Amino acid sequence: MTADPTPPFSSSEGRQADILKLLMELNSVYHNHKEQMALSIFGLEAAFFVGLFLLGSWPPDVMKMQRRPMVVIFVLVWVMFHLALRYQLRNRRLSAIIHAAYVDALLQTEDIQYEKSSHTYRPPHGFAQLIDLTLIPMRGALRSSDIALSHLADGSVISPATRQSFEFHLAKHQNDSAVSWTKYALPIEWLTTLGSMFLLLIALYRVTAIPV
C-alpha cells in the first residue's frame, strides 16, 4: 500500500490559532531585534562622527592628513554604517507588515473573498528597491521573495485555508505600505536615515573647515 505523500496538518481552529500566535510571537521577537540593531548601529555611527571628530579636538594624526584622504575615509566609514542601518530598518518594516498580517489572519477582521486579482502585490521597479535598501526609505519597496511563505510557515502544520488567509492579509498590508507614510515603522526609518545623512554632511563640513 502506497503512503499518502501529502503531509498532515491540523484542521482544528484552536490548533490553527495557536500556530498563528506562535508565528506572530516569533516575528515580534525578530522585529524587536531589528529595532535594537538599527538603534545600536545609529548610536555607534553618532559616537564615531560626533564623539571623536565633531565635538572634540582633532587627533594629531588626523590633523596632518590632507582633506581628500579624510573625505574618502569619512565617506567609506559612513557608507558601511548607513548600509547596515538601512538593512536593519528595512527588515524592521518588513516584520511590521508580517506582524500585521498575522494579527488580521488570527482575528479574521473582515470577510475574505480571496480575490487574487485585487490583492496581488506588485513590487516597485528594481531601482526603487535599490534606493530603499541602500539610501532612503521608499514606500512599498519590498520584493516578492521577502514574503515567501516557505520561511514563514511549515505547510505540514498550517492548513490551506489558514495559509490562504495569511497570504490575503499579507498582500493587503504590502499594498497598504505602498501608499502610507505613517504605517509599518516608516516615520522612525526616515528620522534615523536622515539623521545618518546629516551626520555625514556635518563631518564633511568639519573637514572643509580645517585650515590647510
Name its key features.
212 residues, mainly alpha, elongated, disordered N terminus
Secondary-structure-derived class: mainly alpha
How do the helices and strands follow one another from N- to C-terminus? HHHHHH
Discrete helix count = 6
Poorly predicted ranges: 1-10
Amount of helix: 55-70%
In total, the number of strands is 0
The CA-CA distance between the termini, in Å, is 87 Å
Mean pLDDT equals: 76
CA gyration radius, whole angstroms: 23 Å
3D shape: elongated
- β-strand amount: under 5%
* Major pleated sheet: none
Give structural notes:
With 212 residues, the protein is mainly α. Helix 1 runs antiparallel to helix 3 (67-107). It has 6 helices and no strands. The model is unreliable at 1-10 (pLDDT under 50).
Kindly summarize this structure in a few lines:
The protein is mainly α.
Topology:
Layout: H1 13-54, H2 60-63, H3 67-107, H4 126-134, H5 160-177, H6 186-208
Helix pairs in contact: 1-3, 1-6, 3-5, 3-6
